[in-house]
Inverse folding.
């Protein structure tokens, strides 16, 4: 059995990123937290998503975005669009989005600064009431 070294995650990561892009862009991935590098090295997080994760301004937000991707709550396209949303370095855009998938149904909510999860829940509850009332007479399209 091979002895583990601190450089092993970086070596696995490096082997996946060199073919994907330029040298300096690839080097930036080595600044990611080790746990995220490990997911990239094992192919669980694509290099394109990891680059977007690396643009976030806090390690906590980087871990959050990685977990959202791994849980299937975030697509590659959404991750790439995140740099335009709140939380990215140098960004002043106010829009954020959250996506949930359950029983084959995906719900994406876009919201601005200052909106709380309670606000989102209330809006979804109101929409659910309208759908229930309407659903008694109509089938889903």
């Amino acid at each position: 059995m091979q002895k583990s070294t601190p450089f092993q995650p970086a070596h696995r990561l490096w082997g996946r990123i060199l073919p994907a892009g330029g040298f300096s862009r690839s080097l930036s991935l080595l600044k990611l937290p080790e746990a995220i590098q490990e997911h990239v090295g094992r192919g669980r997080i694509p290099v394109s998503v990891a680059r977007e994760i690396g643009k976030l301004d806090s390690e906590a937000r980087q871990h959050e975005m990685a977990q959202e991707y791994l849980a299937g709550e975030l697509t590659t396209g959404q991750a790439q669009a995140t740099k335009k949303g709140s939380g990215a370095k140098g960004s002043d855009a106010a829009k954020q989005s959250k996506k949930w998938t359950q029983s084959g149904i995906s719900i994406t909510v876009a919201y601005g600064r200052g909106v709380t999860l309670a606000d989102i829940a209330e809006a979804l509850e109101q929409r659910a009431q309208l759908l229930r009332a309407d659903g008694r007479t109509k089938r889903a399209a």
Observations:
- The longest helix spans residues 117-135.
- Helices lie at 8-17, 23-28, 34-41, 47-54, 59-70, 76-81, 117-135.
